[in-house]
Design goal:
single chain, about 170 residues, mainly alpha, two-stranded antiparallel sheet
Amino acid sequence: MLRPAEGGTLNRMHTIEHLRHLFAYNDWANRRLIVTLKESDSEKARKILAHLLITEKEYYERLYGKDSTGFDFWPELSVEECGGLARETAERFEKLLRRFDEEGLEYTSRYRTSEGEEKVNNYREMLTHVLFHSSIHRGNIILKLREDGFEPPQIDYIIYLRETKYI
């Protein structure tokens, strides 16, 4: 028989609090990968990381209606540039989420995709997309690191929770 989780705060969080927490995890996982990539020479993994990070930045800007027509989601960035981009974007999302309440997640953004198509999504949808997109590509990076003979960092969510004392 299943029982509700005892203790921890995660099981009682509102969406905004949960998103704040998940974006903190997202930053933690990205930083772990950057440290590993500084010690490896995995070109493919670095390219995927650059894509992951530039996409996070572009989606932040789309929240404010940016026209992404023609945007290059596969830039050539060094690991150091990736580190700077990761810090900058994590800070932006953290500040944004601190200013929001539950109702703020229903705000909508009208923006253009890289193909020039106009789209409308609410903040909740876009923020969730950023997290899922980044998670997918971190998995790709882990695979490329292993293929290139490097030991990837442990970036599982449960590891984050254990290390940050959320559980």
